[in-house]
Amino acid sequence: MAFDEGLAERVRAVIGRRAGVTERKMFGGLAFMLNGHMFVGLLGETLMARVGPAGYEAALAEPHVREMDFTGRPMRGYVYVAPEGIDGDAELARWVERCMAFVGTLPQK
User: Fold this and answer.
1) Is residue 102 a part of any domain in this protein?
2) Is residue 109 assigned to a domain?
3) What pTM did the predictor assign?
4) How many domains does the chain divide into?
5) Which of 105, 108, 107 is nearest to 52 (CA)?
6) Host domain of residue 27
C-alpha cells in the first residue's frame, strides 16, 4: 500500500528540522523515526501512531481511532488514526507530538 504524499508533507511540516528524525519506507508505507524508533507511519491516508502501552487505552477512546492490527493481531501501544481524525493541522500536530514525546522516552538505538 502506498502512502499519501500530501499527508507526508504535513507530517514533515510538524516535525520541522528536529534532530534525530529520519524517514524510512517500510510496511508498504512511510515511517518517521526518532533516534531509531518509529513514532508515526503512513499507510495510504491513515496515520499509524505509536502512543505506548500507557497511552493505548486513552488513544483508543478518541474519535476516528482503532487498534493497529497490521499483523492480524492488535499491536498494543500502536493505533490507527483515520483521515477524519487528522483532517486539521492542529489534530495532526497533536498526534505527531504525542507520539514523539512517547518515543523520546525510549533509549536510543
Assistant:
1) no
2) no
3) 0.94
4) 1
5) 105
6) 5-88
65's grid cell: 481511532
Question: What amino acid occupies position 92?
Answer: L
Smallest Cα–Cα separation from 51: which of 88, 86, 83, 96? 96
- The average pLDDT across 27-37 equals 93
- At 102, which amino acid appears? F
CA 59 – CA 50 distance, rounded (Å): 10
What is the average pLDDT across 70-82? 91
Lookup: cell for 68: 493497529
The H-or-E segment that residue 43 falls in is strand 37-43
Whether 12 is in a domain gets the answer: yes
Burial class (CB in 10 A: 0-12, 13-18, 19+), 39: buried
23 in a structural domain: yes
Fill in the DSSP letter of residue 64.
T
Distance CA 90, CA 56 (A): 20
Go through the chain and tell me how many residues it has: 109
